[in-house]
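Q: How do we represent a protein-ligand complex in a form that can be generated token by token?
A: Start from the inputs.
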Amino acid sequence: MGADEPGGERRTLVAGNWKMHHDHLQAIRTVQELGLRLDPGALARVEVTVHPPFTDLRSVQTVLEDRAIPLVLGAQHCHSDDAGAFTGEVSAPMLARLGVRYVLVGHSERRQLFGQSDAQVAAALRAVLRHGMVPVLCVGETAGEREAGETEARLAAQVAAAADGLTVEQIAGMVVAYEPIWAIGTGATATADDAQRACAHIRARLGDLSSPEAAAATRILYGGSVNPDNTAALVAGPDVGGVLVGGASLDAASFSDIVSAAATVRRSSRR
Ligand code: 13P
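Then emit the structure tokens for the protein with 1,3-dihydroxyacetonephosphate bound:
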């Protein structure tokens, strides 16, 4: 399935980041259950991805293909080099060979817990593009930055560090996820207004780096304590093109409820 509806409207994107959860057997069960639960009507309006741990990717890919489950395969991270002496890392061409379509780049957990720098994020993003996949660039401010009124400056800096120098087509085709760090795994979701304001700011900065037309096409997601009850309000923001879901994506019932909630939002004037 393509990214767009037949009428030219861009489909909402709902992405499930499993982080370090679910071994390959649990992953198989989860995607099989998602295949049964996801409402075909919702899938016509919502593109759904899952981003399992590396060890699950081959199993999930096989199940999706064998059973024609309309989920798109994603990964959580990759190295910027295509091959080399980088113990423990996985490269973009390895993911592309497995049928991975979307790769998270610069998730705050990679940045904060594993020291991923802006330069490494930019290089990984280019590796994903080089191998024909779609980067999902994650940006977001800490609680301290938010309290100091530095949210917009932080987002602008992260977007510029990763996307400066990309072509207008690359910017139009990428995905950005606004994930305020204080909202991740805390139950403290950003308000729909905050999410919309931050996504609009990110889009404006992408426009500065490319063109307003290119940036209008970029899909920008909100992530951070998304659940079935707050999804519809969040994706109602005209600049919010979907959600990146952590904890609530691990369970097929809650994740399919999020997809159904996202599908209830009409997209007439949406990006
Ligand atoms: P939670 O949905 O568990 O807050 O995680 C958000 C996230 O980090 C998704 O990438």
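The chain has 13 helices and eight strands. The pocket of 1,3-dihydroxyacetonephosphate is lined by residues 17, 107, 179, 184-185, 223-226, 244-248 (CB under 6 Å).
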